[in-house]
Amino acid sequence: MKKIEDYWNDVLIYSVVFTTIEERMISKILIFPMDYTMEDIHTSIMTNFENIKCVDSVDEYMFGMALKNKTIGKSAC
């Protein structure tokens, strides 16, 4: 029998606020792997969003689970 870890990865969900070069403040909920440090998260945001002036806050929101791949199985009912 397979374990839950065979299908799901543990993740952390963060509430993130950042400011754009145009001085717009943007709030997003972002998901990162459990092993990401705050430095990794800041670097990822600055690298993967365009026109970011600074990351204002990164607050841990909750634990979550992310499906490892597209596994389609039987329905819940």
Describe it for me?
The protein is mainly beta and 77 residues long. It has one domain (4-67). It has one helix spanning 38-48, and strands at 8-20, 25-33, 52-67. The relative contact order is 0.32.
Number of DSSP E strands: 3
Q: Looking at the structure, what is the overall shape?
A: elongated
The order of strands across the largest sheet is: 2-1-3
Describe the main β-sheet briefly.
Answer: 3 strands, antiparallel
Number of discrete domains? 1
Helix and strand pattern: EEHE
- Output the number of helix runs: 1
Structural class: mainly beta
What is the CA-based Rg, rounded? 16 Å
Q: Level of helix content?
A: 10-25%
- Distance between termini? 20 Å
Strand content: over 45%
Q: What's the average pLDDT?
A: 92
Question: Low-confidence parts lasting 5 or more residues at pLDDT below 50?
Answer: none
